[in-house]
Amino acid sequence: MTFWKNAPKLLETLLNVVDSLNRRVEAVITSRTALQFIPHPRDQQNRPFLHSVSLLQSQFQNQGNRLIPDAAEERALMYQRMFEGQSFYEKLNNVIYYDLFVPEEERHASALSRNKEALKAELGLWEAHLQKSPGSFLAGSSFSLADVVVFPTVAYLFRFGLSAGRYPKMGEYYALLKDRPSIKASWPPHWLENPKGHEALKDF
Fold first, then answer.
1. Is residue 71 over pLDDT 70?
2. Pair (93, 2) in one structural domain
3. Which residue range is the domain that position 166 belongs to?
4. Do 43 and 89 fall into the same domain?
5. Strand partners for 137
6. For residues 158 and 146, what is the distance between their CA atoms, to the nearest angstrom?
7. Contacts of 141 (CB under 8 A, 6+ apart)
8. Where is the GST C-terminal domain (predicted)?
9. CATH of residue 189
10. Percent with pLDDT over 90 in the chain
11. Is there a domain that residue 59 lies in?
């Protein structure tokens, strides 16, 4: 019983630690003469994105929309979705870029099949996340850092042919965010030139 009574305070302490770590990352980065990312040694590909998102949020937190919720519960959910989003991105890449990342002599149909099953499971997880969300966004009723991190993956999914009919909540989420001014301004130019995209995920 004592643990559960103290749970809100423990959660707030944890969030303060995370915020402190984010500020330390920013301090290390901005102390250098040129902007450099600090990737985890076991993941040179994706972790820098979280660092740069954290840096930009901290640098411009008093401009535009507030991207970190005030409520502790929503803030905890935001951080959870941010870090889960990296796994989502990796599982997508393991399917759509399999032929690019894996040398021809090392490719196996069984491996690609496992990658596809892992992505399908991940899609089901995120569809459920959106179904259970207390608002239209990943961490509640307002746009947050979780959406900044995860939406590019969602955009790639639909770019590569994912069906909104099979994943209706993800389709609604994509439709809601893609017309935000900040997202429209950062849309890849070649996507505008060729809106059709690909069909690698049309059967998912």
1. yes
2. no
3. 80-204
4. no
5. 140
6. 19
7. 134, 135
8. 71-204
9. 1.20.1050.10
10. 50
11. yes
Q: How many domains does the chain have?
A: 2
Q: Which pLDDT value is given to residue 66? A: 75
Residue 75 domain flag: no
Residue 54 lies in a domain: yes
3 state SS of 74: helix
Average confidence (pLDDT) over 103-118: 94
Instruction: Decide which of 33 and 203 is more confident.
Output: 203
Give the number of other Cβ atoms within 10 Å of residue 108's Cβ. Answer: 9
> 56 and 88: one domain?
no
Return the DSSP state at 64.
S
Do residues 46 and 112 both lie within one domain? no
- Name the DSSP class of 134: S
Encode pLDDT of 145-158 as tens digits: 899 999 999 999 99
* Segments in the chain forming alpha helices (H): 2-30, 47-59, 72-96, 98-101, 109-132, 145-159, 168-178, 181-185, 189-193
Residue 104 DSSP class: G
- Mean pLDDT (whole number) for 174-189: 93
In whole angstroms, how large is the CA radius of gyration of the chain?
19
Phi and psi at 167, nearest 5°, equal: -130, 75
49 and 84 part of one domain: no
